[in-house]
Amino acid sequence: MPELVREWPHLLNRVLAEVRPADGRGDCYVAEVDLSEDELRALNLFEASARHEHVAFTDPATAQGMFAYLNTPVGLGKPLDGSGIARVRISFTGVQTMLPLKARSETRADG
């Protein structure tokens, strides 16, 4: 049975601009961002629905499709710039590059 991969919510695409590989860990991406009330609500709902499943997102530096596990967001307190309602650490683990559809179908045919 194929695993379900959840697509990152469009409402949170701005957040992805801040996501970067963690120092010394290519399989872990992290960002600390200020979120609006709507973004925080969307992140919490998405995290709850995507728990224990892979999440698909686009690496902002390379525009490459990636998939990973979304860790539980960590609240860091007040936003730095005062424009949001909270500062949150978002992290992904087990980050892998997505294969193009053609390559995936060829891999399945070989295996």
Unreliable stretches (pLDDT < 50, length at least 5) are: none
Helix content: 25-40%
Taking the alpha carbons of the first and last residues, their distance comes to 15 Å
The total beta strand count reads 7
Strand content: 35-45%
Counted up, domains total 1
Spatial extent as radius of gyration: 15 Å
For the largest beta-sheet, the strand count, sense and barrel status come to: 7 strands, mixed
Provide mean pLDDT, rounded.
Answer: 85
Shape: globular
User: How many helices?
Assistant: 3
Order of helices and strands: EHEEHEEEEH
Please state the structural category: alpha+beta
Structure description:
The protein is α+β, with helices and mostly antiparallel strands. It has one domain (5-110). It is built from three helices and seven strands. The protein has helices at 13-16, 37-50, 101-110; strands spanning 5-7, 20-22, 25-35, 54-58, 65-70, 74-77, 86-97. Strands 1, 2, 3, 4, 5, 6 and 7 form a seven-stranded mixed beta sheet that branches. It is globular and about 40 Å long. The chain starts with a strand and ends with a helix.
